[in-house]
């Protein structure tokens, strides 16, 4: 595999899409490869789809879609002799997620006759190691979470650590061409590639911030490919699809993405300060960003994410077009709740064993108690009935079935629609959603050995 | 007077991790950004009122380089917990749209 050329100390990084499995046009990949990138990659996941995927150990993109993207990228990397880096593999970056994508890589290599050295970087944390870190006082809460206790660790279904650049650089040093990592800071693989090539951390991390979402920093926004050129004191962003372009505004907008501060971006090992950044158009579709600074942290920290099982969920979707019911919906719901509580208790589900929610779309289904509009009179209302049972899927479905029946048939004063209150779009009407998880660990751990929580295995294909 | 929906180029919300919501309002020129900033209406106090959270829990940051204002505040419910209505947090921006600015 060729070393990145150092002419003018420039590194070109190609991101195919926002997430592995979101898809990208093959023409965009070809256009990117024509620019001679030194590295190709894509972010493999996100915490954004919620706690379920980390808990259950499955991806939020379909394996069919992931495999399609991975096949094109593996072929591109091997044919062009450049590294392929993927962080947060399989969506949540736990051991089963990484194993899924690694298995796909092996299968694609076999089918397509590709040969490469692959590194797998684990991010799943064993509970004993976390207990030891807590006991040593080296785990701190984030976002007003409680102090981490042994009980919370015991209850956790899965815990991952979020790696920084160091494990990726170790894998590149060891000669890996394909690096599949578990949970990683989104920009970390990109930052690692640029720092590994000798570029400073400030533009390296900034490049990663742009590349982690593919062509999202361009307009029209879409899941597509982005090329970022990293130099000593700036980066340049350009989308590979001629239908898109980066503008100073589109880049500035993306720099606000998913971060609590627009100017202080906390990363493993330091903070990217973008307060003095300048955005300049270098063409009608490329933008140069300069002025970023990297402030190394006094203490290296890596984030921990963990989830625990909260029960089992069943749901049902229905709606009403009856103005008489809509006019007294709060009273109606209160009556339904009483009926359901009594009948569920009668078959063995006491009120403290489940939670019953009625989401009212057309009223406050999107913003709940933060909804400011309280005086609208909609002509129809949609409902999502949900039951989360502490005990079993069977019991969740039993209580939900009672809820559905009572939404359909419960009488109300002035009722004319005596055959039924609800329109159900589906048969069967009730859906078993499976285990429900909740985020229970959102902390940072202080690290001295930056590789120890992220062991690397190598294999030759 | 002008509504944010009529003068902003971006008004959006999104998770900043599972426990926080971050809301951005972006303008298309330094001139408009400065005029909006000068009104003082976009502030931690405004977001505290619109989202019913203590002002001390709102991190409000104007970002001059991007002609943008950002506010980060606690989610109503952690992402994916029972009762969460918006796992990605990307449909919580609407109360901003009708804020009237004296410009």
Q: Taking strands numbered 1, 2, ... along the chain, how are they ordered across the largest sheet of chain B? A: 2-3-5-4
Radius of gyration of chain B from the CA trace? Answer: 13 Å
Shape of chain A: globular
Tell me about the largest β-sheet of chain A. 10 strands, mixed
Which secondary-structure class do the elements of chain B indicate? alpha+beta
Widest β-sheet, arrangement of strands of chain A: 12-13-9-8-1-2-3-7-4-19
Q: Work out the helicity level of chain A.
A: 25-40%
Task: Tell me what you see in this structure.
The complex is a heterodimer of chains A (461) and B (103). Chain A contains 13 helices and 19 strands. Chain A has 461 residues and is α+β, with helices and mostly antiparallel strands. In chain A, helix 7 (166-173) packs across helix 8. The longest helix of chain A is centred in the first third of the chain and has 18 residues, at 63-80. The radius of gyration of chain A is 25 Å and the shape is globular. Chain A starts with 10 loop residues before the first strand and ends with a strand. In chain A, 51% of the residues are buried. With 103 residues, chain B is α+β, with helices and mostly antiparallel strands. Chain B has a domain at 1-28 and 55-78. Chain B is built from four helices and six strands, in the order βαββααββαβ. Chain B has helices spanning 4-7, 30-39, 44-50, 94-97, and strands at 2-3, 10-15, 20-26, 59-63, 68-74, 100-101. In chain B, the strands form two sheets. A four-stranded antiparallel beta sheet of chain B has the order 2-3-5-4. In chain B, strands 1-6 form a two-stranded antiparallel ribbon. The mean pLDDT of chain B is 96. Chain B: Residues 4-99 form the DUF4387 domain. Chain B: This is Acyl-CoA synthetase. Chain B: InterPro entries: DUF4387.
